[in-house]
Amino acid sequence: MRLRNVTGSREYIADSRYVIHEYKEKKGNWKEVFGNENPIRVEIGMGKGRFIMDLAEANPDVNFVGIEKYSTVLLRAIQKQEEKELPNLVFIRMDAEEIDETFASGEVDRIYLNFSDPWPKDRHAKRRLESRQFLERYDHILRKDGIIEFKTDNRALFDFALEEVEPAGWKLDECTFDLHADSRLCEGNVMTEYEEKFSSLGNPICKYIISR
Ligand code: SAM
């Protein structure tokens, strides 16, 4: 995403009622943000937000939190939400490294990771959102029966992610190296922006679902 310098995006985000600004203060109290007891699902690195917005629209009894590091990308998601005004969707601009300072133990029902940045250099492996370091953070916030769903077209990143599952104490529930050819796992699939782009180029999409 090369949208990092759209003028005024930080100011726009600071004024948005769809963005939770003091997010660490909400830890343990996210139900109050939504005003109900519905489960809370989080997408990390949501980009321009197409996936989470489609999910939120189709699942009004579930609450969604979209996390994105860069203001200029988040701005696009906010602009879409201003048109739709979905009551079950909010955003946070933050680095996912802070996720276990943001949600309390068991507060999150499900985590979505879609087309995460690959960080190809070995020395950056711990920055990958599927690394054991991140799985440990997710372990702190996810309900005991909660799951993580991960999609990517990057085979090297997917292979790395698969190797991290067991050493981190998780188990592989589902796995495919070609989601769109797998009628069972693809049923109800909601496309992301990157998924649409890369699958249209002929790249197979890998997906796993993991739990503890
Ligand atoms: N998930 C979207 C999709 O599938 O279309 C966007 C994919 S894009 C390749 C990855 C996104 O994750 C970028 O918008 C990037 O800024 C965000 N991101 C990467 N690392 C992050 C982190 N540590 N915390 C929050 N967002 C992050």
Distance linking N and C termini: 32 Å
> Looking across the biggest beta sheet, what order are the strands in?
3-2-1-4-5-7-6
- H/I helix tally: 8
State the order of secondary-structure elements, H for helix, E for strand: HHEHEHEEHEHEHHE
Secondary-structure-derived class: alpha/beta
In the predicted model, the low-confidence regions spanning at least 5 consecutive residues are none
Percent range of helical residues: 25-40%
Shape: globular
Report the portion of residues in β strands.
15-25%
Radius of gyration: 16 Å
Structural overview:
- With 212 residues, the protein is an alpha/beta fold.
- It is built from eight helices and seven strands.
- The protein is globular, with a radius of gyration of 16 Å.
- Helix 1 packs across helix 4.
- A seven-stranded mixed β-sheet has the order 3-2-1-4-5-7-6, sandwiched between helices.
- 32% of the residues lie in helices and 22% in strands.
- The structure holds S-adenosylmethionine (SAM).
- S-adenosylmethionine (SAM) is lined by residues 1, 44-47, 67-70, 73, 95-96, 114-117, 192-195.
